[in-house]
Amino acid sequence: MESFWPETPLLNAIPAQTITLSDLPVRSVISPDGDYVLVYDDSSLVVYNTISWRIETKMNMDSGLRRVCYAADGHHIALETSAGREIWDTKTWEVLYKEENADSLSIVLPSSQGFAKAKTQTEGDDWALIVQSWPYRQQFAKLNAPEERPLWTMDITPHLIAMYHHDQKKITITEIKTGRIVDTLLAKRPDKIKLSPNGRYLAQIYNGAVRVYDRWSNEEKYYGQRIIFGEPAGIFSADSNYVLIAGNGNVKMIELATGEVRLDLATRFHMVRSLELSKDNKLLTITDADERSVTVYRIG
C-alpha cells in the first residue's frame, strides 16, 4: 500500500546576524546555553547577546588571541594567546588564572572537570601525549604519541581520546581514565578527526568526504561533499544525533541514525572555514574566510 506520510521536511536556517570585527580573520564560539556568541580576532573579543544582539562586553587583547574555549558549565572560558593562557569568569569577565610563556606544543580543551590541557613532550627518543586537568595539573592520561605534534589529528571528549598514527595509518581511541585502548581502526590520512560527544561516532574528514564510523554497530557511512574551496569543516551536534559537514560554501546537517540530510544550506560564502552549533541545535555560526565575518543562523 502506498504511504501517504510525507518525507521528513528539511529544517530551515535563517540568517540572524552577520558580525565583522576588523580586517583580521575572525572565529566564534557559542555559549553552552546558546545565550551568547563570542566573536574574536587576533586583538579583540566581543560578546553578543543572541536575543537582542546587544554587545554585552568587548575586550581588547594586548597579546595575540589564538583560541577561545568554553567550559561545559558555561561559566568559564579559556583563552589561548601568544603570551600564554588565561581562564575568565563569564559573569564578571574577570581573569581567574593566568599562565605566561605557555608551552606552544599544547592545546586547551573542555573536560568533565572544567578544562584539560593536552601537550606533547619528549620521552627519550619518543614522544608522549600528556592530558591533564588545567590549571590543577592532575594527570588524566599519558599516551605514546605518533609524532612530535599530533594535536591537529586528534580529538578529545571528557572520557575518550582519538588519535591518528601517521606511521601505522590507524586511529586509536583510548579511555582517559584507564589509559586503555578501546578501539582501533584503519585510516587513510584524514585531514581531521572528530569524536561525537557521547563517544559513539568517529568522523574522518577528508578534502572531499566525511566517513563516519559507528563504534556501537561497527558500521561506516560515507558522505561525499567534494570540496574545492577551503578547508574541510565538520562537527557533531552536542546530542551526538547529527554530523555537519561543509565545503564550497555549502553546509549539510545529516541525521546519523537515518543518514537523512536534515539541513542543506547554500550560503553566500565562497569559503566556509569553520562551524559552531549550539547545544540545543538552534543556533549555527559559520565563519567565512573570504569576507572575514561570522554569520549566525537560527535553525528551525
Descriptive account of the structure:
The structure is a single chain. The chain is an all-beta fold. Among the domains are: 14-102, Thrombin, subunit H, CATH 2.40.10; 188-299, 7 Propeller (Methylamine Dehydrogenase, Chain H), CATH 2.130.10.10. Helices cover 0% and strands 56% of the residues. It is built from no helices and 28 strands. A 4-stranded antiparallel sheet has the order 1-28-27-26, with no helix packed on it. Strands 2-3-4-5 form a 4-stranded antiparallel sheet, with no helix packed on it. β23 (242-247) and β24 form a beta hairpin. The chain starts with 12 loop residues before the first strand and ends with a strand.
Cα radius of gyration in angstroms: 19 Å
**CATH architecture descriptor name of the domain at 188-299:** 7 Propeller
How much helicity do the residues have? under 10%
Structural class: mainly beta
| CATH fourth-tier homologous superfamily of the domain at 188-299 | YVTN repeat-like/Quinoprotein amine dehydrogenase
